[in-house]
Amino acid sequence: MTKQTPIRAAAAYTLPITEKDALRTALAEANLPTLLMVYTTIRQDRAYLEGFAPYLTGAYTAGAPCDVPEAMAQDLRDRLFALLTDPHPPVEQPMDHDLLRTMMSVSVGEQVDPTIVPVLYDQMGFEQAVPRKEQPGRPLPPAGFRVLVIGGGMTGIAAGIKLAEAGYDYSIIEKNDELGGTWYENRYPGVGVDTPSHFYSYSFELNPDWSTYHPKGGEVQNYLTGVADKHGVRDHVRFGTSVVEARWDDAQGQWSVTLRDVRTGAETVETARAVILAHGVLNRWSMPAIPGLDGFKGIKMHTAGWDPDVDLKGKRVAVIGTGASAAQLAPAIADTVSDLVIFQRSKHWVLNSPERNADTVTDGIRFALRHIPHYKEWYRFRVYWFTGDGLYGNVLMDENWGNKDVSISAQNDAARSYALSYIQDKLKNRPDLLEKMVPDYPIFGKRIVLDAEGGWLDTLLKPNVTLETGAIDHVDDHAIVMKNGDRYEVDVIALATGFELTPALGPLKVYGRNGADLAAAWGKDDARAYLGVMAPDYPNFFLTLGPNSAPNHAAGVNMVLEAQIHFIIEAMDMVVASGASAIEPTTRAYLDWNAKVEHQMQHMIWSHPKAKSYYLNSKGRNFVSCPFKLADYWNWTRTPDTKAMQIS
Ligand code: NAP
């Protein structure tokens, strides 16, 4: 990003807009702060921008409502209407950084730190970077520098696109018969994404056409496969194939990778100069070790292995687990089944997410996203701000905060009060449920459940729904039997019991220099890496969403995976540029990074004595979460630090 920022040419949009009625509707329905940013991008009228500042105080709203006086709002819409329908479209000028930062600050009603403007700008999707292979002076990867990507989900698809843009030959090895990963596999009723998709999507492929702000799984899957097809990724994918082993060959400076045909079991060996592990973190099903479960005579399905052909109409259904998957599944099936028993082992905080109540993206707003120049980029900024690093204060302990038993900071306490009053209000006529639902640990100690009208809590109130919090003893042929002897006869058991995150490599074997065994180095559940991406002794082996790089304070997995892919390609470019064959972090850099993670982790909510979650390993160490802001992590992964790298 240069000092003078060339906002993408208006030519990417067609001006003037001739569908005047549609434009009027769009302007009436669109998010006003976002319209103000569009106007300022084109006109760069600082005084006009600042006139709105007192009224924009930072509420995240998808549509039009805000505190701007109607006369001002209408003036803005009229100005935009005139600009966008002018037969002589305005010519956009480069924008200086200070104006960009001021716009961001006015838009969200708080000061945006100048140091994070570049990350925001990148993630807004404004600047379509020149593809690496077209960058003058950059050495092209030599023929035969092949990269093997393990997994064709959201990360693997992005990796393929960016590798091709950088001129690397690549293959994606995918165990399924289709791309999409999580979004291909998870087909349980109600499956969807909590992160608003105007952010949970690639910054280089903004989609103006989302039908809702929190799309269901099928729409996310269609988006991912659509992007993959647009970029020709599919031609590089070996479907129905899993990776069994990767072994570094020091003499040849390459990996030997053993692949297995999922259907026939036949194994083949291929070589690659680099391997990117994009197999997904939430991928291997966690099946509860409940005695008798295997012998259950009815139907049992993990949420991630749902059979959509199973007809639940009139059936007695048990759901085991009360995390994010259960909270989507139960509302989607409660009215179809005859009885629904939900088994809760521990309590999860439930947070109201009111914008879900008006979840449809109206035609007017879709028109704005598609046709009004830069609306979708500025809207994405807004979503990032309110669902991303703006939430960091929720998970960072304030050392001066008094009683840390129930909350850890002012922001965390406010979130707790907000969640608590929602739960109390919803369950006010059911003291029994209230007792079962309010956690005793600070909010965000484990992943929250996001709720809305007609969602999770309303489902628990339904007459055919029971929340059981006792301990399960065993399952027999037709029932779940409790320790106290109660029996729940059911036809279907839905296992919303989450995923195995350990061992981090799953069944994959990785042998680095001198046969170093990565699974052994990490032990059962003690994975560590440099920046969550690389480890010494494993040259040209790159992890994605690896140890301590999950953005658990906020939405942003999309942002982390893009940052990591960028870093990986930068690292490989260093190898190519130096004519060497391998790159890996120094042991010093690896140790320092992990010490930094561990130090910061002590200040995070996940280290609270009452916080228990799948982020923690058997020793209580959080090996999953990134304890830093997304913006910081993005900055650290821009360019590999040459002092931290060993090139050979
Ligand atoms: P999860 O958050 O790990 O929840 C699993 C649930 O099953 C927990 O309530 C857990 O209880 C319970 N459980 C596990 N083993 C059990 C056993 N043996 N007996 C009784 N209960 C048991 O799994 P998830 O809901 O599938 O979500 C996993 C992750 O996927 C989420 O954290 C999120 O990152 C992602 N996800 C996102 C969305 C979304 O965006 N809307 C939707 C689904 C999933 P304990 O709490 O006691 O462990």
Structure notes:
This protein starts with a strand and ends with a strand. It is an alpha/beta fold and 648 residues long. The chain is built from 19 helices and 25 strands. The longest helix is centred in the C-terminal third of the chain and has 22 residues, at 557-578. Helix 2 (32-43) packs antiparallel against helix 5 (97-108), helix 2 crosses helix 12 (375-387) and helix 6 (117-124) crosses helix 12 (375-387).
Give a quick summary of the entry:
This protein is an alpha/beta fold and 648 residues long.
CATH topology of the largest domain: FAD/NAD(P)-binding domain
Q: What is the level 1 CATH name of the largest domain?
A: Alpha Beta
Poorly predicted parts? 1-11
- Which structural class do the helices and strands define? alpha/beta
Bound chemical compounds: NADP nicotinamide-adenine-dinucleotide phosphate
Strand content: 15-25%
Shape: globular
Mean pLDDT over all positions: 94
Radius of gyration: 26 Å
| CATH H-level superfamily title of the largest domain | FAD/NAD(P)-binding domain
Number of helices: 19
Distance from N terminus to C terminus (CA atoms, Å) equals 31 Å
The CATH architecture name of the largest domain reads 3-Layer(bba) Sandwich
Q: Helical content, roughly?
A: 25-40%
What does the largest sheet look like? 5 strands, parallel
Tally of domains: 3
- How many β-strand stretches? 25
> What is the strand arrangement across the widest sheet?
5-4-3-9-23
